[in-house]
Amino acid sequence: MIEVVGDSSRNGEVALVRLTLDGDRIVDADADGLERPLAGLSLLEAAAVPGEKLAADALANALAQVFRATPEPNRVAVAMSGGVDSAVALLHAGRDAIGVTLRLWIDPAAPDSERACCSPEAVIAARETCHARGLPHVTLDLRDEFRRAVVAPFIRGYAAGETPNPCIRCNGSFRFAELLAFAERAGASRLATGHYARIVERDGFRLLARARDPVKDQSYMLARLDPRLLGRIWFPLGEQTKDETRAEAERAGLAASRRAESQEACFLGGGDYRDFLRRHGVAAEPGEIIDEDGRHRGKHAGFWGFTTGQRRGLGVSSHQPLYVLSTDAQANTVVVGPRESLAVETISARGRLYVQVDRAEVKWRYRSPAVPAAVVQTERGFRLHLDAPAYGVSPGQAAVLYDDGVVVGAGVL
Questions:
Q1: Cα 177 from Cα 170, distance rounded (Å)
Q2: Which residue from 31, 292, 295, 326 could staple onto 17, CB 3.0 to 4.6 Å apart?
Q3: Fold of 343-412
Q4: Residue 359: exposure state from Cβ atoms within 10 A (0-12, 13-18, ≥19)
Q5: Per-residue pLDDT for 411 more than 90?
Q6: Which fold would CATH assign to domain 284-341?
Q7: CB neighbourhood size of 143 (10 A)
Q8: Which phi and psi (to 5°) does residue 221 adopt?
Q9: Mind telling me the catalytic residues?
Q10: Of 117 and 350, the one with more pLDDT
């Protein structure tokens, strides 16, 4: 037998749960504030027991340390964010679903941390959505791991003069690795999420594809997922629109139907990335703004506060519009010039081609239009020869390749 303890505190109040386990069954429990006794329940059954918020938090913290369940072919683990999309994904997963929410690190100085998909408030909303349907829910506290795997590279990238995309790094490796590992411990046959994307078969391979709703399509953010994992993943919202999702949530009476959308880069908590970087050690050292010929054009307060293609806020007067062409971390300079100097026709990326293609459409921003290109595989990824010049491309961005709406490759510029 083993003993596990979970606690939770808020506004000076504290709750404590102590469980004695024999295998995956609770033989004794000291847990006030829950709606039913825990003794005699399996860990899976205990995860479905609701209660007062602090008590439910404390129970979740205890269960997360040891959670496991006997495999069940119909069981689906559903990644829950507390929002409407994951709540409707839970509906699609049926009566054998189990919800799981990742509690991730959020900047404690963020102006609006409640907007984040991984905040304590989001965790509570996700748990209550599951418990309202009599379904189990588990919270995984991965704040330290997330900060090392996603936040630290984001800070290092900007300090080195790159424009990193933390959401692609998170979804392409960290988040889904943790969720799939949990699904296995929970005895679930697959993992469902509320992302708007599809999985298709092509030439004997499972590949990611754009969602039916072009406005909500999230295949770009998911593009670095290893296709070998797609056999264990399900995107139940991929064939429907956001309006259909909200209508479904309202018909089911889900509280999440009224929850506001969370922003990207959740750890920023609604704040500006420049303020975040200053708070977390990226020095704002003054330097020169120069033109392509090296002539002085002005001063900046930190090169990393400028993005390739940026036009506004340069603080430089000119008879013609000037754009940021590049930044140089070593020299601490920002280079500006006319828009035509932004044009690039060849792009190289570190990454992989999931299938062999000679041509594809490439996106290097979530909202950027796709540009046709010839594709050449290289030792470390691929090189793209664009049919038309691209503007505002910068190191650190993600390049995602599509062929007829299917993701056929992804990498980092």
A1: 9
A2: 31
A3: Elongation Factor Tu (Ef-tu); domain 3 (2.40.30)
A4: middle
A5: yes
A6: SH3 type barrels. (2.30.30)
A7: 16
A8: -70, -25
A9: 170, 266
A10: 350
The helix-helix angle for 120-132 and 53-64 (nearest 10°) equals 90
pLDDT tens by residue, 265-306? 788 888 888 888 888 888 888 989 988 888 898 898 888 888
Number of H helices, E strands in the chain: 11, 20
* pLDDT tops 80 at residue 145: yes
69-268 fold: Rossmann fold (3.40.50)
Amino acid at 403: D
The answer to whether the beta carbons of residues 43 and 26 sit under 8 Å apart is yes
* CA nearest to 43, candidates 154, 165, 148, 182: 182
The domains of the chain are located at: 1-66, 69-268, 284-341, 343-412
Give every CB contact of residue 337 below 8 A, 6+ residues apart in sequence. 291, 292, 322, 323, 325
Q: DSSP letter string over 174-209? A: IHHHHHHHHHHHTTEEEEE---S-EEEEETTEEEEE
For the record, the structure tokens of 114 come out as 């409640």
Tokens (6 digits) for 40: 């005699």
- In sequence order, the 6+-apart residues with CB closer than 8 A to the CB of 43 are 21, 24, 25, 26, 63, 66, 67, 68, 69
Mean pLDDT, to the nearest integer, of 143-167?
Answer: 91
- How far is it, in rounded angstroms, from Cα 220 to Cα 318? 36
Q: Are strands 344-353 and 381-390 parallel, antiparallel or unpaired?
A: antiparallel
**Structure-token match 């059954």, residue found:** 45
Burial class (CB in 10 A: 0-12, 13-18, 19+), 180: middle
Q: Look up tokens 């992989």; give the residue.
A: 352
Q: 372: left (phi > 0), else alpha (psi -120 to 50), else beta?
A: beta
> Hey, what amino acid is at 79?
A
CA angle (261, 394, 298) in 5-degree steps:
105
User: Are the beta carbons of 25 and 44 closer than 8 angstroms?
Assistant: no
Q: Are 384 and 399 in contact, with CB atoms under 8 Å apart? A: yes
